[in-house]
Every structure is written in structure tokens, then in C-alpha cells.
């Protein structure tokens, strides 16, 4: 079959546009299954219609896949809902092609039923598309005579139970020609994913809905070999999109050692959970080319950290932050303010704590985006903040009632200072 895969993230203004690694992985798996594949990464809302028409006229696809990476920008003060313009994208596809349209991607996987209904596509893929999408193509080729494959959503019908690949080495990493040959900016950060899954169960997080809870790993040697192939194309800046780079620590150290042994002159950044970090890991990361980390501590208040189900304390954050500072690695920090139990005192405590870390950058978020099937969603329902039947596709946020008239102005004051 001829398959056109479209990365729609570039039409979501307001976010830095990442290169479409997830869709490229699906493209690699689809090609491996014997299909002809073209990946189209849209450049801007002003040009996407012409780009789609041109790609469809050239390929004449039998199936069109659209990756939905983001649902919204998670900004309570001025939320941007990204699915609305995607209706126009689907309308163009429908106008110039009779091919069925399949949705997938991280954002879609959180809202598989409601997003499929809202956008009016034919099918949806929840979770790992490298397995489910080729299976869907085979099912379509066979005339849909059996039940849809696991992970496939049909309108008004739930998917069969999906499964996760235990060994990520069985999933092919995308060759640069599939997704990087058209990228002229070799200074762009190339996303790398060495692990999937997160067992930490933060009360607001949707990662387990996308990737599952068990941590599943690629062989470090395969990851580094793939990075070397990308490096040979002129790219040296990378971004590890693993939900927690330092989990497990032994794997992170092995990966860093293999990067060091490769001799590649890399510049990369990663997401670090402020626990299970020692000086040896930090030094290896620095030697391997890590120049920046995202330190997701979210709060500096003990009761709020406990409410968020964090496994670390303030001392852990402070010690680990200092380790990275001593190694010359920039630290980006994040505060999520206004969740359950938050008060003016805990907000001020968090702001003072963040200031004491002397971070290179601090992002403060007011209110927490509510995702379905999370403890935060259950609490919001129990408190009457959202209805039990609200699918939460349109952005909904939790903000402690006592802070609604105070917290936005307080944060604006801090940002302006």
C-alpha cells in the first residue's frame, strides 16, 4: 500500500516544533512491512494546504496517517486548543483523496475516543504505532473481515486491548532519509528515545497512558550507533525525550559510557528526575556531551510534593541541582502551582526554594492540566471541578479555589521581577 504520514505538530503555534521522531518510527516500521511510505512534516499553517495537496497528488496514497502530538499548550491563562485547525487539515485530505485517515501520536493516545470523534477520522491508533499501524494496514488489505487489531480505534467503538513491546530493539529506528533529509537546519535538536514507560505515577501525568508503566529500554549500543548515523548527516545537537533519563541509573551510565567511547562530539539535553542521581552519573553525562537538563521538581513544599506523589524531597533537589551546576550543565527548572492542597504559604515556599537553586531558567505554570484516568482527574470530579462525563479533551485545569484571584497576579509579578 502507498502510505502518506503527516506530522501535524508544526501547525500548533506557540510551541517549539520538534522533529517528528515518533512518526518517523512508524514510517520505518511501515516500510519494513513492505509498504511505500512518504513522511510529510508541515512547515506552517500558511503553507500546509498546498503541501498536503502536492503530496497527495504525487503519491496517490491508499491510507493517510496524521500524527497528533499536542492537544493544547497547557496554558491556563490563554489556552490554545490545537485540534480545531486539524479539522481543516482533514478537510483538505478528504477533498483531494478517498484514502481513509488514521490518527495517532502522543496527544491522540491520551484521548483516543474523543479525539477521533472530534476530528472525524476513520481510525485511530493508541500507543505504539510501530506495531498497530502496520497491523491496521494488513487488516485493511484483507478487507476488514476480522476484528480490528489491538490498539486500533473505530468511531464509537473502543479499541481491543493494546500491548506494549517488551524489547524496544525489535522496533526499527528510522533512517535519516525517512525524516531528516528535508531538514536544512542541522543546528536543530534531534530527538532521541532510548526508553519508554514511567512507573512513578505523578498524580497529574499522562505518560503511562501513552507508554505504559514498565520502563522498556533499547540496547545502548544501538542507540549510540543510530546517533552516529544521524551525526554523519551533520547533526550534533540531540534531545533525549525519555521521560526520565536517569531511570534506571545503571542504564543511563552505560549509555553515557558508550557515547564517550564513540568519540562523537555531541551536545545534548535530557529530562532528569531529582532522585537516584550521583556524582558519577553527572560526570559521565557532562563528559558525554550533556549541556542542559530539565529538572522537574514542580514544587518546593513538602506537603505539595507528597500530594503530587513525588519520590524526592527538597534536599534531594538541592543536592542534585548543585551537582549539575558544578559540572557546568545548565539547569532548567519547572514549578506547577495551584494543585490540590496548595495555599499562599506553599506557593511562597516554592518560589523561595526555586530562587535558592539559582537555576539558569525557571518556568512557572499556574494551574495543572487535567488528563483523564489520573488521580488528579478523580479528585477534580470528587470536588465538582469537572463533571464525571467530561472527556477533558477541551483543556481543563485544576487550580485551588482559594488561589484563583491571587496566584496569576503573584506569578506575573515574579516573572516580571
Describe it for me?
- The structure is a single chain.
- The strands form 4 sheets. A 6-stranded mixed β-sheet has the order 2-1-3-4-5-6, sandwiched between helices. A 6-stranded parallel β-sheet has the order 7-10-11-12-13-14. It has a two-stranded antiparallel sheet with strand order 8-9.
- By secondary structure, the protein is an alpha/beta fold.
- α10 (249-262) runs parallel beside α11 (279-287).
- It has 2 domains: 2-153, 3-Layer(aba) Sandwich (Rossmann fold); 184-416, Alpha-Beta Horseshoe (pyruvate-formate lyase- activating enzyme).
- Helix content is 38%, strand content 17%.
- It contains 16 helices and 16 strands.
Topology:
Elements (H helix, E strand, L loop, with lengths): L1 E6 L13 H12 L3 E6 L6 H12 L3 E5 L15 H14 L4 E4 L1 H5 L1 H8 L3 E3 L3 H13 L10 E2 L22 H4 L10 E3 L2 E2 L10 H5 L4 E2 L2 H12 L5 E4 L8 H14 L4 E6 L6 H9 L2 E9 L3 H6 L6 H13 L3 E8 L6 H13 L4 E6 L1 E2 L5 H8 L14 E2 L8 H10 L1
Parallel strand pairs: 1-2, 1-3, 3-4, 4-5, 7-10, 10-11, 11-12, 12-13, 13-14
Antiparallel strand pairs: 5-6, 8-9, 15-16
Helix pairs in contact: 1-6, 2-3, 9-10, 10-11
Amino acid at each position: 500500500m502507498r502510505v502518506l504520514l503527516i506530522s501535524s505538530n508544526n501547525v500548533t503555534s506557540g510551541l517549539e516544533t520538534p522533529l517528528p521522531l515518533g512518526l518517523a518510527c512508524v514510517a520505518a516500521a511501515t516500510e519494513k512491512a513492505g509498504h511505500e511510505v512518504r513522511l510529510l512534516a508541515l512547515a506552517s499553517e500558511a503553507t500546509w494546504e498546498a503541501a498536503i495537496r502536492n503530496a497527495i497528488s504525487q503519491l496517490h496514497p491508499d491510507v493517510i496517517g496524521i500524527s497528533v502530538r499536542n492537544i493544547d499548550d497547557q496554558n491556563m491563562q490563554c489556552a490554545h486548543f490545537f485540534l480545531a485547525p486539524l479539522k481543516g487539515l482533514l478537510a483538505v485530505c478528504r477533498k483531494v483523496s478517498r484514502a481513509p485517515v488514521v490518527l495517532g501520536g502522543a496527544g491522540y493516545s491520551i484521548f483516543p475516543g474523543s479525539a477521533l470523534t472530534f476530528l472525524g477520522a476513520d481510525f485511530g491508533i493508541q500507543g505504539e504505532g510501530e506495531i498497530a499501524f502496520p497491523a491496521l494496514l494488513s487488516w485493511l488489505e484483507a478487507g476488514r473481515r476480522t476484528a480490528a487489531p489491538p490498539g486500533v480505534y473505530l468511531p464509537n467503538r473502543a479499541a481491543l486491548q493494546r500491548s506494549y513491546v517488551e524489547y524496544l530493539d525489535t522496533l526499527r529506528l528510522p533512517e535519516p532519509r525517512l525524516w531528516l533529509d528535508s531538514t536544512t537546519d542541522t543546528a536543530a535538536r534531534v530527538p532521541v528515545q532510548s526508553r519508554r514507560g514511567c512507573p512513578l505515577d505523578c498524580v497529574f501525568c499522562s505518560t503511562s497512558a501513552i507508554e505504559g508503566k514498565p520502563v522498556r529500554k533499547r540496547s545502548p549500543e544501538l542507540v549510540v550507533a543510530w546517533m552516529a548515523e544521524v551525526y554523519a548527516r551533520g547533526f550534533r545537537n540531540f534531545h533525549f525525550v525519555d521521560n526520565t533519563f536517569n531511570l534506571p541509573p545503571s542504564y543511563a551510565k552505560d549509555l553515557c559510557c558508550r557515547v564517550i567511547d564513540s568519540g562523537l562530539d555531541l551536545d545534548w539535553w535530557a529530562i532528569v528526575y531529582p532522585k537516584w542521581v550521583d556524582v558519577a552519573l553527572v560526570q559521565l553525562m557532562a563528559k558525554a556531551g550533556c549541556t542542559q537538563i530539565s529538572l522537574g521538581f514542580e514544587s518546593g513544599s513538602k506537603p505539595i510534593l507528597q500530594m503530587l506523589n513525588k519520590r524526592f524531597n527538597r534536599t534531594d533537589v538541592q543536592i542534585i541541582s548543585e551537582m549539575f551546576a558544578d559540572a557546568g550543565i545548565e539547569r532548567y527548572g519547572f514549578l506547577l502551582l495551584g494543585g490540590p492542597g496548595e495555599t499562599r504559604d506553599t506557593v511562597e515556599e516554592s518560589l523561595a526554594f526555586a530562587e535558592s537553586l539559582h537555576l539558569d531558567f525557571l518556568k512557572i505554570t499556574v494551574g495543572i492540566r487535567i488528563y483523564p484516568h489520573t488521580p488528579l482527574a478523580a479528585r477534580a470530579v470528587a470536588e465538582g471541578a469537572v463533571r464525571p462525563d467530561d472527556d477533558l479533551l477541551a483543556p481543563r485545569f485544576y487550580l485551588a479555589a482559594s488561589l484563583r484571584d491571587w496566584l496569576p497576579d503573584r506569578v506575573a509579578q515574579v516573572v516580571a521581577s
